[in-house]
Each structure stands twice: as structure tokens, then as C-alpha cells.
Design goal:
Elements: H1 4-22, H2 30-45, H3 54-73, H4 76-91, H5 101-118, H6 120-125, H7 127-145, H8 147-154
Helix pairs in contact: 1-2, 1-7, 2-7, 3-4, 5-7, 7-8
Length: 165
């Protein structure tokens, strides 16, 4: 992934900007703050999982890592969902659905719903993680498209897929 350092840096900047206002809602502990930072940085790399990149490597490593305990616990239905999800980055084109803010937001909500179906207490705990993951993905798209084109894409207007510099 060319320029992944810029995506990580900008995700970190967005995290720092949004962490102080988040204290009004979640009062994160130091450990939770580190977790949210890591989730934001992962979100910053996530839209590029549809190409051979560090983001794709980390995505498949994560899926493999969470599948192991699910096999032990015998969450067969959830494992099938994970296997289906693992195919999506392989069959879509780059800058397709993974570069659309509404898809990324919907995907995050569906993932949260999936976690809720497995463990509703855990789902309550990961709401801030989902929010900061979206912040990371949005930071990626803002760098790729520029703020103006990102906002157009967020509102569903047709834009070109060229970089803005």
C-alpha cells in the first residue's frame, strides 16, 4: 500500500482531535484509550484491503486470529459469516465499495450487530471502538479524495476517482 504511513499519521491526528470530546460520552481508561487508538489506525488502513497491501495482510491475520477461539467455542454460524466476509476483498475492485463512506459505516454497524448476536454485553463495550474505526476509515477516504470530494461521496453525488493533491 503506497503511502500507508500518511494514512496512519492522519488517522492518528484525527484520533487526537476527537479524543477530548469523547471524554464527555465514554470517560475512557488509559487501556481503552490505547485500544481506541489502535482501532483508529486499523480503520485508517482498512479501505485498502481490496488490494495486496499491509492493510489486507492485517485484515486476514485478524480474521484468522478471531476464528481460532470461535472454532473452540463452536460458533459455526459465525465462522461461516467470517469466511464469507473474507472473500469480499478478493472479488471487488480497488476504490470500489471499500472506498465508499456509507458502505464502511453500514459494514461497521453490521459487524456490531454480528457481535451483538454472539454476546450483547461485549457489543455494549465495543460501541466506542466502532465509532473510532469509522473515524479511521473516514480519515483514509479524506486523504484519498480530499475533503470536498469525500463530502460529495458521503452525500451520494457522483465524483471522479482521481486523487486530489
Amino acid at each position: 500500500m503506497a503511502g500507508y504511513q500518511k494514512h496512519i499519521s492522519f488517522s492518528f491526528f484525527c484520533f487526537l482531535c476527537l479524543l477530548p470530546p469523547s471524554y464527555f460520552f465514554i470517560q475512557p481508561s488509559p487501556i481503552l484509550t490505547v485500544e481506541l487508538l489502535i482501532i483508529t489506525l486499523i480503520g485508517g488502513l482498512f479501505p485498502d484491503i481490496d488490494i495486496k497491501s499491509k492493510g489486507q495482510y492485517y485484515f486476514y491475520f485478524f480474521l484468522f486470529f478471531i476464528t481460532i477461539p470461535m472454532i473452540y467455542i463452536q460458533y459455526d454460524k459465525q465462522i461461516l459469516y467470517i469466511l464469507w466476509i473474507s472473500l469480499v476483498p478478493i472479488i471487488v475492485k480497488h476504490r470500489g465499495i471499500f472506498h465508499h463512506p456509507l458502505f464502511l459505516t453500514t459494514g461497521t454497524i453490521c459487524t456490531w450487530s454480528f457481535v451483538y448476536s454472539c454476546n450483547n454485553e461485549l457489543a455494549k463495550q465495543i460501541k466506542p471502538h466502532c465509532f473510532f474505526f469509522c473515524i479511521g476509515t473516514y480519515s483514509h477516504l479524506i486523504l484519498d479524495y480530499g475533503l470536498k470530494n469525500f463530502l460529495k461521496k458521503l452525500h451520494g453525488k457522483k465524483i471522479s476517482t482521481t486523487y486530489t493533491r
